[in-house]
Specification:
Layout (H helix, E strand, L loop, with lengths): L15 H29 L3 H27 L10 H15 L5 H31 L3 H33 L2
Helix pairs in contact: 1-2, 1-3, 1-4, 2-5, 3-4, 4-5
C-alpha cells in the first residue's frame, strides 16, 4: 500500500468546532436527501407495516431537519448544506435494490436493508456529533442531536423487528 501525505484543502477544518460544523452541514444535506428518497421507498413497499414505519420516519426526518437548524442556531452559524458523498452512495444503492428486486416481500426485505444502511450511517454520524458537542461544551447542541440519535436508533430497531418477525419470513418462501 502506497503511503501518501494529503495536502488539506484551503477551507479544511482547523478546529473541532470547524469539524463539528462540517458534520452538521453533511447531516443537513443527508436528511434532506433522505426526505426526498423515502416517498419512493414507501411507494414500492408492499408490507403495510413497513409502509407505516417509513411514513412515520419520513415525518420524523422532516422534524430532524428542523432540529438540525436549531443546532446551527445554538452554535451561532447559518444552516448550510454540504453534499454528503457517503449518503449519496448509500441512497444510490437503495435505488438499485428497487430495480434488482421483484415487488413483494423480497423487495420489502431489500428496502429494509437499504434503510438500515442509512440508519447505521446516521447513528454513527450523530453519535460522533454528540461527542463533539459534549467536548465543545454546547449542551443545547448535544441534547438536540442526542434526540435525533435516539430516533434513528428507534427506527433501526423497528426495521429489524419488521424484518425478523414478518418480512424476511415471507421473502424466504
Amino acid at each position: 500500500m502506497k503511503k501518501e501525505k494529503v495536502t488539506p484543502k484551503k477551507d479544511a477544518a482547523k478546529s473541532l468546532e470547524d469539524l463539528f460544523e462540517d458534520c452538521l452541514k453533511d447531516a443537513l444535506w443527508a436528511e434532506n436527501a433522505i426526505k426526498d428518497s423515502l416517498p419512493k421507498m414507501i411507494e414500492n413497499a408492499t408490507s403495510i407495516n413497513l409502509k407505516k414505519a417509513l411514513e412515520d420516519h419520513l415525518e420524523e426526518t422532516k422534524n430532524q431537519i428542523k432540529t438540525l437548524k436549531l443546532v446551527f442556531k445554538s452554535i451561532g452559524v447559518k444552516p448550510e448544506e454540504e453534499k454528503c458523498d457517503a449518503m449519496v452512495g448509500i441512497l444510490e444503492e437503495g435505488e438499485g435494490i428497487l430495480e434488482e428486486t421483484e415487488p413483494g416481500a423480497v423487495r420489502d426485505a431489500g428496502i429494509i436493508a437499504a434503510c438500515q444502511k442509512v440508519e447505521h450511517y446516521e447513528i454513527a454520524s450523530y453519535g460522533t456529533m454528540v461527542s463533539y458537542a459534549r467536548h465543545l461544551k454546547n449542551k443545547e447542541a448535544k441534547n438536540l442531536i442526542n434526540e435525533i440519535l435516539k430516533e434513528e436508533k428507534k427506527t433501526d430497531r423497528l426495521l429489524s423487528k419488521l424484518a425478523t418477525s414478518e418480512i424476511n419470513l415471507k421473502a424466504d418462501k
